[in-house]
Amino acid sequence: xxxxxxxxxxxxxxxxxxxxxxxxxxxxxxxxxxxxxxxxxxxxxxxxxxxxxxxxxxxxxxxxxxxxxxxxxxxxxxxxxxxxxxxxxxxxxxxxxxxxxxxxxxxxxxxxxxxxxxxxxxxxxxxxxxxxxxxxxxxxxxxxxxxxxxxxxxxxxxxxxxxxxxxxxxxxxxxxxxxxxxxxxxxxxxxxxxxxxxxxxxxxxxxxxxxxxxxxxxxxxxxxxxxxxxxxxxxxxxxxxxxxxxxxxxxxxxxxxxxxxxxxxxxxxxxxxxxxxxxxxxxxxxxxxxxxxxxxxxxxxxxxxxxxxxxxxxxxxxxxxxxxxxxxxxxxxxxxxxxxxxxxxxxxxxxxxxxxxxxxxxxxxxxxxxxxxxxxxxxxxxxxxxxxxxxxxx
Length: 394
Ligand SMILES: [Fe+2]
Ligand SMILES: [Fe+2]
What we know:
394 residues; mainly alpha; Ribonucleotide Reductase, subunit A; 18 helices
């Protein structure tokens, strides 16, 4: 089986094989996971829509227990206070970004673009067959613009979700930490918006699959689901994406801002892992199964967002043709998409969700081709390597 080639039939059978588990229709609102029409039917906001309303679930919690017993969260809070940086003064915004130079370099260093170029050269059915190097350099630029735009919208999702966590989590240490994250996320929205506005001078609207996931995370009335959706899934994928883009780019402003954002994001994912480990330890098998199903749904939404369906038209291609070709030739998926789950899977394993119950989530992630990352380092262990607070203090 190819990396993410789960057919509708196989998926349905897999879902039906576990009687206790809801069907794919109930979990993700569609019959299978690979139908091109169903994927394309999910669209983002129209460009003129300036406000999106999402219904928020759950209740606000006060706690009168001000004792601080959760040492790991307390340490994280302390680190967060020392790690604050300033978009205006810690980055050099006088740096000019040369679009042609950046595009040509990204063509050499972005693995997903190289994979497309190599596949297109030998495949007449590929919609990019016959493209010139200049066209692939253009693709690299659009990939970066699209990715940065989704980072921007995802960061706003994180800003809103951590405000929700601050309100709803019952532990005082977590409220302290989440409050620092609200500030971190405001800074991230600010930095990506400024980079897109001043240096890229272009952007895309929020991807529909990402927005669907953000809506789900906000609508859920269980506080730990906001953690799982945002801290583990969305931020885990973002952390991996930032790492790949930071490695691919030579543009000094972007490289530095990504390193700074990653320092915050690694802490955020660690916050999720530490908090959920405690919450899950007390949950029933049924409750854990619901968390597994959510991890599957969120994983799928993020996979679907990585088809970049809103980008192809700008390059003169049909989204339907590209998606159909990508599903049949998962070249991009193998090299790039799966790797973006490299932070998520070990964290879910550490939380016990891969193997809870009958290992339902392990089976789903095996089909999605991302289980190989299960023994990568988890973020609660590795996060301090990303820390920039000593650099800021100096
Ligand atoms: Fe962020
Ligand atoms: Fe974050």
